[in-house]
Amino acid sequence: MKFYASIFFLYAFLALSTTAVKVDYTGHMVIRVFPETKEQINFLAEWESTSSVDFWSRSSTIERFTDLRVNPESYNDVAKILLDNKLNHKILIANLGELERQEQQEIALRRALYNGNKAIDVENYHTYEEVMAYLADLANTNPLVTTMVAGASVEGRDIVQATISSDLAANKPIAWFDCNIHAREWITAATCIWIIDTITTGYGSDPEITALVDQYDWKFVPIANPDGYAFSWTNDRLWRKNRAVNPGSICMGVDLNRNFPVGFGGTGSSNGPCSETFHGAAAFSEPESNTLKNLIAADQGRVKTAISMHSYSQLWLSSYSYTSALPSDYTTMLRAMRAGVDAITATYGTVYNYGSTGTVLYIASGVSTDHYYVNEGVLHSYTIELRDTGLYGFELPPRLIVPTATETWNGIKAFMNAI
Ligand SMILES: [Zn+2]
């Protein structure tokens, strides 16, 4: 009996120890670096693509800072490397683990207090399964909404597109959104879900929403990277890539937003599987990016705008991303972006910058929006980098979902009315 009991406990112990242990970010910092010369900017770019240092944002010009996540053990080494390159830095977030605990507490508190009648509280963060349940419920209960499984992730999760249409047979022009292609950018799925909820509840009563739905079909992929998103809940809050196994490497994941063909493998992407910007074996090597490609291609000629939602930085960005050269449609793009950004800022005063990715943010090759613009002919193809500018970074507290989504939706409405 005693023998069996100890076998039981041994199994229980093994089961516990092999289940996911969540990455503990206690003591991890985010530091902000201020480059002052072109050489320092080049050094940071080189450092990003050749190391596994987690860059949260990167400078393209001397006006823009670079944010890095640093673990407590390597802080002294990183500080020395920066000093050797005459780079100044300050600590932006002192303890990411504490920030994550606060976020989880707020999520749990909101869950406990929620007494609405929807499948989920659209003012809170939710797991992949909860979001899928919400979309299924919406499709069952709201005649405007249909969902389709557009593809499957590496680990076999559904990649779902939700369509809001008052007349599917009319083949209207489309406003299309991919959200949460980067796993840790939770505010992006939350914003897309809040907008879906706002459109579906406002149709028929809000004149502006009614007009926009009568004019366009609205399509959303609320979680474009399901495996990475699920992993960011269970194992690693700050996971960015998908969950592909990279042959010959212990590091997993491809940066899906470097896995598109325009400029594939170029500046601002890495060929190292351990890099956060690893571009993968080839353009569209990953099922998740391939699914987005197919969705846009299936609606060819109808996509009026395709917007990729990211965080953080408060930017509205156009092509090109893979080069600092400007597209021939840039004047039209600038006018449209300006309409969006002005309406965002008019809401709560949130400051946004706008312009081409390659000039305003940094050069990044193989990104979704360049593909939508260059290969699919979607002129109004943009990346929106939502709140904030680094105070919380990727761990924007749930209480900021509604303000973020509200201003973003105001921006999108004004932009749609301007194009
Ligand atoms: Zn992103």
Helix/strand layout:
Layout: H1 2-18, E1 29-34, H2 38-50, E2 54-57, E3 66-70, H3 75-84, E4 88-93, H4 96-113, H5 128-141, E5 145-152, E6 158-164, E7 174-179, H6 186-202, H7 207-215, E8 217-221, H8 226-234, H9 287-298, E9 303-311, E10 315-318, H10 330-348, E11 353-356, H11 357-360, H12 368-374, E12 380-386, H13 401-418
Parallel strand pairs: 7-8, 7-9, 9-12, 10-11
Antiparallel strand pairs: 1-3, 1-4, 2-3, 5-6, 6-8, 10-12
Helix pairs in contact: 6-13, 10-13
Bound molecules: zinc ion (ZN).
Residues 182, 185, 310 line the site of zinc ion.
Organism: Daphnia galeata
Cofactor: Zn(2+)
Family: Belongs to the peptidase M14 family.
Describe, in plain words, how this protein is organized in 3D:
This is Zinc carboxypeptidase A 1. Pfam families: Peptidase_M14 (PF00246), Propep_M14 (PF02244). Its cofactor is Zn(2+). One of its GO terms (cellular component) is extracellular space. This protein has helices at about 1-20, 40-50, 75-85, 95-115, 130-140, 185-200, 205-215, 225-235, 285-300, 330-350, 355-360, 370-375, 400-419; strands at about 30-35, 55, 65-70, 90-95, 145-150, 160-165, 175-180, 215-220, 305-310, 315-320, 355, 380-385. The chain has about 425 residues and is an alpha/beta fold. The chain folds into two domains: about 30-95, 2-Layer Sandwich (Alpha-Beta Plaits), CATH 3.30.70; about 110-240 and about 255-419, Aminopeptidase, CATH 3.40.630.10. Helix 6 (about 185-200) packs across helix 13 and helix 10 runs antiparallel to helix 13 (about 400-419). Zinc ion binds near residues 182 and 310.
